Amino acid sequence: MQDLESLSASQAIRALTRREIKATDLLLACLDRIGQRENTIRAWTSLGKENALMRAKELDKGAIKGLLHGLPIGVKDLYETYDLPTSYGSPIYTNHYPSTDAVSIALIRQAGGIVLGKTATTEFANFKSGPTANPHNPKHTPGGSSSGSAAAVADWMVPLATGSQTAGSIIRPASFCGVVGYKPSLGKISTAGVKSLSQAMDTMGCFARTIGDVALGVAAMSGDHELANIQDLHNKPRLAICKTINWASAHTETTAALALARYAAEAIAKGSVGEFMLPKSFDEITQIQSRIMSFEMSRSLAFERIHFPKKLSALLTKQLHSGDTISYVQYEKDLLRTHELRSQIAQIFRDEVDVFIAPSAIGEAPASKESTGDPIFCRGWTLLGLPCINLNITTGPLGLPVGIQLIAGPGKDHLLLSIARAFAYSLPDPVTRDQA
Amino acid sequence: MQDLESLSASQAIRALTRREIKATDLLLACLDRIGQRENTIRAWTSLGKENALMRAKELDKGAIKGLLHGLPIGVKDLYETYDLPTSYGSPIYTNHYPSTDAVSIALIRQAGGIVLGKTATTEFANFKSGPTANPHNPKHTPGGSSSGSAAAVADWMVPLATGSQTAGSIIRPASFCGVVGYKPSLGKISTAGVKSLSQAMDTMGCFARTIGDVALGVAAMSGDHELANIQDLHNKPRLAICKTINWASAHTETTAALALARYAAEAIAKGSVGEFMLPKSFDEITQIQSRIMSFEMSRSLAFERIHFPKKLSALLTKQLHSGDTISYVQYEKDLLRTHELRSQIAQIFRDEVDVFIAPSAIGEAPASKESTGDPIFCRGWTLLGLPCINLNITTGPLGLPVGIQLIAGPGKDHLLLSIARAFAYSLPDPVTRDQA
Questions:
Q1: How close, in Å, is residue B326 to chain A by CA atoms?
Q2: What is the mean pLDDT of chain B?
Q3: Assigned CATH topology for domain B4-228
């Protein structure tokens, strides 16, 4: 038998529910791995070892609780937890203990998941880096803002971890760390109890090492338990490459990743897969996303701006000031435009395509821990509220992972997962096949 | 000069910014009124007298802070506040002090508003009554769930108070208490830091005694400061009576209220005002709203259900169980339907009408403090995300207030306020004229 910490979430849960392994042993294996690696990776802001062990023992003795029975889970420190401190990546909230769990975390626990600890996020899920290193090369960023979750999963510390995305905070770190990242449709998972940046766009999701695993995570967090039963594809899916208007920013490794993805796509579609150009009306989605986020964030953090202005980083303060300069009229115009574009993209997905294949990031993780990389290839999809999955597909010139993202129509999460699993099976790399 | 506590918010702010009155004196006048009446009305769960007085003194000495400079405000106890306990109407959260303010409350304070205290809500903004009495007859309910806010404003304790609506929790208590209640368009005000019941429908808003006052409140809470400048109507508005499919439930006083509203409407429209029948596709909006709310609530309260099942009332527990019986497939179907109906109603408002005139409630406030009344005339509009304003229009057989609601298209809050002000001027009753 392989080491317990290297089991996928689905493998582990199968073994746990058959009582072939113990939740306690799985947890200890994860803690052991964390003990070995945390000095280098710095993925965690706190560990709830005692509570987690107590819970694991209860689950080992008691009835099967649910979808995530006995599985250790990392929780991005943007999510509130009643038994572990929640800092939102800000020194303002050092030693802050909320009274309740975020709704999605309560649902994870209800499904038998064990919160092992909190994972590092950037300051209020923005762009100021946290302490976390990329497991593939500690001198590089793991991406952000869900830095700790992506790194912990990539480094075999935990099989499943939660994330959130307002610009590109799930897909980008998943690509940089070589794991599966799943941002479901907007609204699929409650945002209650997760620090709010943008009411219009904040989306909860998760990281794991396989498609089945992220499906399990979002199934539990959303209450859509059927999502965990990924259906086989019965019809040939309509696939298309969508390079987007930002394609000129892509590095050569991203070009290569997209070419590899096209081979896989053609194997699945049993025919050639073409490129899809979004209509001109979508040309500004990146800018619209950016403006809405800035505008909403400058208001969402009003409390912190009033009471703790000096504890906000210079980078964030600058961002907030830039949000202040956007007028409400501009904001309303952008929201209206978003609404129209969401209808239009839904129509495109109904009539023309099931899944787009698109870049996840510009390229490999930048060689710096000062920047978490550019979310330019994610902003628009987040604005549109579409479900996205990052799949690791190749490595770049520095040997770091490079992913692509699959994007489906609004609410088409089941279809997205089916196609993503077919992709994982069709890829040349055995590691990637493991992502099914 | 009239007593300070009887000034409207707009009158008070005008006097405050001209330094004709002091924030301290206004606050003391409100506290005095509360002292006289609170034993009967029981609108408040806590008062922050010391902090409020300190803040008032600062504002009296300092520069003009913003839209709400020096105005005492009541905050529904569903909103988190860093300096006052937040119970969400549940014994689970007795003496619960959150670390931050809800986003909209931080924005109120940023605009110079003074949080005077927290107002009573029903248990987690549901149907189990709180302690509050209707100021017009203490044996009757003030409505719910924003019971304390509506009663405090009606009883001249405070000129402005926040509310929230998922089914009918602003419009219904406003009607029962004879004040103006304004539920703006869905998404206009951040829900962050307000206990979440339904991600799909929770909407923040406020109560006051005039149209100008609720405009001020929502302007500050949303950051859309232009909303406070209500524009005159330049074109004849397209008005229509919309009795809705639930019309058979209306009591005679509601029939009378709608007839009076029609006179006012015809004066404004300078011509006859007809009835509008919603297309058959809208027949089920009340049921859809109810199912989505039940489904989402049974998940939103997961933490409380796991940790404090015995501290939830029998009534709420029953509701939560009923939510558990709704399948995710049904929920998704209902959400999809909602999405379609929202597009359809937007089209109707574009092509055919500016404002609907509709019942706010079945009739007068029921003669009981056990029930907060039926939200049947509000559920559908809330589901559709439309901005609604309750205007007091007449009294029923028991001498209690009866309102009507004006409803505009999604995002048409400016237009709604203009028309509502024209209504208030056109009504026969001088008290109601005061609502302009």
A1: 11
A2: 96
A3: Amidase signature (AS) enzymes (3.90.1300)
